[in-house]
Model the fold of this input.
Amino acid sequence: MTTFAGRETTARFIELDERWSTHNYHPLPVVIAEAAGASVTDVEGRTYLDFLSGYSALNFGHRHPDLVAAAVEQLGRVTLTSRAFHHDQLGLFCRELAELTGTELVLPMNSGAEAVESAVKIARKWAHRVKGVPDGTAEIIVAGSNFHGRTTTIVSFSTDETARADFGPFTPGFVTVKYGDAAALRDAITPRTAAVLLEPVQGEAGVIVPPEGYFADVRQACDENGVLLIADEIQSGLARTGTVLALDHEGVRADVYTLGKALGGGILPVSAVAGRRDVLGVLKPGEHGSTFGGNPLACAVGRAVVRLLTTGEFQQRAVELGAHLHTRLNELIGQGLSEVRGRGLWAGIDIAPGGPAGRAASEALMARGVLCKETHERTLRVAPPLVITRAELDRGIDAIAEVIRP
Done:
């Protein structure tokens, strides 16, 4: 283990960050130097449980040996060709991911925001070329309290003023309705509607699970009006909720899925749009692209992720450990928590009035060796790696109980 001498080490690294990096984040005052499985170690040798998992980018834990091996092997062969040429990993990755997700065509990209932007472009082009919506008039229905990324187009339909303030002018073509209100969504559909873009579980909003039957009603409304359903599974997908895709819990299929975060195994950014061939097939050469999208290294790691998911082991761990997590957290309602939400090994917990604010709770957890992070003022997100043990999970929950207890 690499360590650095001196009590001032953490402060020294934070000072460097504050001096030289743009202040677009407010991280906890911990400087991580090493990680493995569900644990991380700071520059002074202190070990913590990771209860955030890189916002679900680390579903398989830090440095999963299968994923590291795939990356190392590919690093010794070829890492980038650009899409000017074929390479021997792209087609295999796209086929295997399509088979895993039950889709027909895959568009590989890099970040989650790129996947969403790509899905928006595809939906608009599909609406113009297939549905007959006049060019430049297509609309996409989104939900309030959404989080799909931070590009200028995506923040154009955010309802979070922190994400939007001072970044206008904004991109038109989006209609916002209340999440979970199928009637409002149906009323918002017009002949210009190209697609509905929704998260199966709203992560940034506090791990909000929709009402039972919501997505079935949305699917029906889309079918009746010739509208695409796009499911943003970037944070909710790839075993976090106990299924490959969180939408599977609803017994509903989307026309298009956006994937990311865990698709890169916590090693590098990998994202994808996956869906119907007749929808993604509207793109023609030269109309959309990415130099790094679908690069050999990304595809090799992505294929290793798919192999881990085909065993079903991680989905089962999310189901079993998730049931334990929610049982224990629900016992804390009235004992410092006011509400617990979530699905699988993923929870949003609201700290009751009189308890600490979210930031203060996160800092108190850090002092107890658990790294978690607040969202909004009084909500913590709990999303440990799926490799965490039951004993480690209990240790983290015990720390939460100590911190939020009135």
